[in-house]
Amino acid sequence: MIYQVEQPFEKTDNTVIPLDQYTDIKNVYDTVLKRSVDNNLSTHLSQWSEDWTNAFQKDGLATMLCPPWMLGVIEGNAAGVTGWDVAPVFPGGGSNWVGSYLTVPTQGEHVEEAKALADWLTAPEQQVKAFNTKGNFPSQVEALDSPELLDYSNGFFNNAPVGKIYSGMSKKIDIQPYKEPNFFAVTTVVTDAMTRVDVDKTDIAQASRDKAVAEFTQLNLQK
Question: Does residue 146 surpass a pLDDT of 60?
């Protein structure tokens, strides 16, 4: 949900937004913990932990977030378990974490050939093939209306039309968050605060948020 906020922690001129004064982030924090803790909709497991991985085989997970790259993770961990499906129900529509980039070193011996290869690898046609093979969703907008993409379904997920689902969700993305220089440092402070409440159960929401504000202040970010 943080990725649905246009300026999560700093303005576009890199002016830091004090964590204790920023309503948008507080709303995200409160909403997530209300659903996960107050409404007890969370398994209270740390993602990627051994307990989280084992939960796939023990009916420990009813629902979970499923960006395209998570399809393979779920299928691998839940091998032999039936009943998984995919639905476009993420609150607020879609969001984008941003992806990867290909670069070509200028000191290479075959720079032009390398550029041509990068262009080919990232072309819509190749991206659709990569999605069908490994679940890497295309970043090329032109690929979103590809019949091959829209017709793709996944047998493990009850033949869910994942190509059509992810294409539709991606078209709902209308905000690209500004990832300022301090984005990841502040994100860690906020997510650690939620983890203390939801997973570790060492704090209640307000106490953990107060600690997050103190940690944010200690970062001594440039104003």
Answer: yes
